[in-house]
Amino acid sequence: MVYLVGAGPGDPRLITVKGLECIKKADVLIYDYLVNVDLLKVAKPNAEFIYVGKQGGAHTLEQDEINNLLVKKAQEDKIVTRLKGGDPYVFGRGGEEAIVLYENHIPFEVVPGITAAIATPNYAGIPVTHRDFTSTFGLITGHEDPTKDESSIDWSKISTGIGTLAFYMGIKNLPYITEQLIKHGRSKDTPVAVIRWGTTAQQKTVVGTLETIVQKARDIRPPAITIVGEVVKLRNQLNWFETKPLFGKTVVVTRSREQASEFADQLYEYGARVIEFPTIEIAKPDTIQPLDDAITNIHAYDWLVFTSINGVDSFFQRLLELGKDIRDLKGIKFCAIGPATEEGIRRYHIKVDCRPPKFVAESVVEELKKVTVIKGKKFLLPRADIARSFLPEELEKLGGKVADVVAYKTVMAQPKDINLVDKIKHGEINFITFTSSSTVRNFVQIIGEKNIASLNGKVQYASIGPITTQTAEELGFRITIKAKEYTIPGLVNAILESSIPHSDS
After folding, report:
1. Same domain, yes or no, for 131 and 110?
2. CA-to-CA distance for 400 and 393, rounded, in angstroms?
3. What are phi and psi of 164, to 5 degrees?
4. Which of 83, 98, 115, 207 has the most Cβ atoms closer than 10 angstroms to its Cβ?
5. What are the entry keywords (predicted)?
């Protein structure tokens, strides 16, 4: 089976539900240049990825070779998902690929996608139809088949017969397009918008008229779409995307891959471009026996204290693996640092008895002293292998009996984006975020200690809390953004505040 899937215009969240399902079940994913690679993250771990992008005159594979590849992979009894930018049947050569599949007796389905002619002007604040301006809308290629003897575009009819015109792939031919429209009756004062990398945080929009747009858009490079029509005038009122507070900003997220999505989603909502650069991975401890022993004797503890969501997940996963469930936790009280850790506990339908107002170990001790007599109580702390010793030491000083067991360990990840230092030096990165001391230390290991000093001043570093900040500053980072609330939403708010211009008055 082959699925010809429209991947949408660039924003990965604009893919259809069915398109996403096709990615998830594919054995082979064959994708184009305009497909957002973030979509590939949901593929099966053993899926094969084949890039067949065409960029300008450079083709990874010619179209005939792509057609043959689809046939070959399908004949290997594999589920093939062919990801195409926008919609497969709108200047995507999906029809040609479908015919080849039909001729080779290979079953196929076509999954429509949101095409750039609709989505891109939308994100630029331009509705393609509006009852006060036009009720007609045309999609036109700005780059016809170069082997044809003559143009199949009837300029005399489309120039004045259609209200809004959307030209795909027409940047190189923009002088010719504007010349033909004016020549065949369209007013030289007709508004025009050229939009590059539409629906993404790299979107750039240039507005002019048929007479001026060639000059104004001289620095625009493909991929871009051109919108011609009176509806372009509405951009000043309807430009919702480019006015987001983090639009045009690039943020690096150094959290583990498993935890990056929540952070990235919040940044996306404010218009940021997010680069996931995981510096840590969560792994099982070198020996699971201490945790197993603690769980086997869980009834002996008065308190379970969790200092991270990873500790929660690791503990409960092992609890269930050992054949136990939440009934075995009857009578034990729960303490959680921070709302995310509390929410992780509540997912198991367990009420948290103590949550300190500040999300650091020092605050945990103070809050526990308010809700219980620590002396003589037994505390179980399922934590990371590199957790600070402050909490167990302070509880023991107060007479508590503490089992500080390793529930998980953090190991250094190997990010794929190895050109991050160059991107920072070239001004392509605005913020780098740290959400734990581990992310800081591993970031240094990955990019090299010698690079740290040279990067200060070229990018802003944002820290989630005082312990992370202290680690970063000890390693030579200049932290300019500090979360007031030591949570992911708090870190996002700190980045937002740093991006909003403040008046001196």
Report:
1. no
2. 9
3. -110, 130
4. 83
5. Cobalamin biosynthesis, Methyltransferase, Porphyrin biosynthesis, S-adenosyl-L-methionine, Transferase
Pick the closest to residue 274 from 245, 250, 241, 246 (CA basis).
Answer: 250
Dig out the tokens for 466 from the structure: 């005082």
Among 114, 130, 146, the domain-final residue is: 114
Q: Is 32 a catalytic residue?
A: yes
pLDDT, averaged per 10 consecutive residues of the chain (505 residues), comes to 96 96 97 93 94 75 94 97 97 95 97 97 97 96 69 91 95 94 97 96 96 96 96 97 94 86 90 90 91 95 93 95 94 90 93 85 86 93 86 92 92 77 88 93 89 87 93 94 91 92 49
How many residues can be counted in the chain?
505
pTM: 0.80
- Catalytic site includes residue 412: no
Which two tokens mark 254?
């150094």
Active site residue: 32, 87, 313, 404, which one? 32
Under DSSP, is residue 421 helix (H, G, I), strand (E, B) or coil?
helix
Residue 243 lies in a domain: no
Task: For 430-452, give one letter per residue: b (16+ CB within 10 A) or e.
Answer: bbbbbbbbbbbbbbbebbeeeeb
DSSP 8-state code for residue 200: S
Task: Tell me if residue 328 is catalytic.
Answer: no
Q: Which of 169, 233, 284, 412 is catalytic?
A: 169
Total tally of structural domains belonging to the chain? 4
Choose, from 1, 38, 54, 353, the residue flagged as catalytic: 54
Domain region containing 99:
2-114
